[in-house]
Amino acid sequence: MDQTQWDERYGAREPVWSGRPNATLVAQVTGLTPGRALEAAAGEGADAIWLAQHGWQVTALDFSAVGLARAAAAAAERGVADAISWVHTDLLDWTSEGPGFDLVTSHYLHLPSEPRRRVYAALAAAVAPGGRLLVVGHHPSDLEVGVQRPPDPDLFFTAEEVAADLGAGWVVEQALAAPRTGTHREGHEVTIHDAVLLARRV
């Protein structure tokens, strides 16, 4: 989906997402010392808001102006507007200004492999020494279990594939296919997996 389609989706109903932070973000970030965080593909802002509520200063990126407006309104309602900078940008064009973030996170950003590598390289470049990169996505194995996914294998990745692209200067703390419960197209529960990479820059 392009920017116009996402603007239409965010503007057509309320809300698109649950308003709760991604469980993997909560599990992986709880216990880390808060600092500067960058979130890519922030959507309606649940993850950015959770980070701000837990002491992080957040820069949140998304290419949907409608989604960002909804996110900013939610942040204001929760009293954390001053802790989040909302940036309207296309990640395909975005570049890091340097390694200044203690945490860089992206959840369920699915692009074809070539632009995905460029985007994740730019995100990795934004991580400060000692900081962490957290990438979560739908695992390729989900295509085999009958859940609703785009039928294009090139949009999916494993944590190990993202880790291999990081190169030297990183310690991979976790690279796994994390199981959770999903819903089959016919309505019954199935086990799906998330690709989860947590890496620390040295």
Which short descriptors sum up this protein?
globular; 29% helix; seven-stranded mixed sheet; 202 residues; alpha/beta; 6 helices; single chain
Topology at a glance:
Blueprint: H1 3-12, H2 23-29, E1 36-40, H3 46-53, E2 57-62, H4 65-77, E3 84-88, E4 101-107, H5 113-125, E5 127-138, H6 159-166, E6 170-183, E7 189-201
Parallel strand pairs: 1-2, 1-4, 2-3, 4-5
Antiparallel strand pairs: 5-7, 6-7
Gap between N and C termini: 36 Å
Total helices: the number is 6
Q: Which series of helices and strands comes N to C?
A: HHEHEHEEHEHEE
**Mean model confidence by pLDDT:** 94
- What is the strand tally? 7
Main beta sheet:
7 strands, mixed
How much helical structure, as a percent, in the residues? 25-40%
Query: Outline, from the CA principal axes?
Result: globular
Taking strands numbered 1, 2, ... along the chain, how are they ordered across the largest sheet?
A: 3-2-1-4-5-7-6
Radius of gyration: 16 Å
Structural class: alpha/beta
Describe the structure.
There is one protein chain. The chain has helices at residues 3-12, 23-29, 46-53, 65-77, 113-125, 159-166, and strands at residues 36-40, 57-62, 84-88, 101-107, 127-138, 170-183, 189-201. The N and C termini lie far apart (36 Å). Among the domains are: 1-10 and 64-88, no CATH class; 91-101 and 115-130 and 150-168, no CATH class. Strands 3-2-1-4-5-7-6 form a 7-stranded mixed sheet, with helices on both faces. The chain is built from 6 helices and 7 strands. The model has no long low-confidence stretch (mean pLDDT 94). Strand 2 (57-62), helix 4 and strand 3 form a beta-alpha-beta unit. It has 202 residues and is α/β, with parallel strands linked by helices.
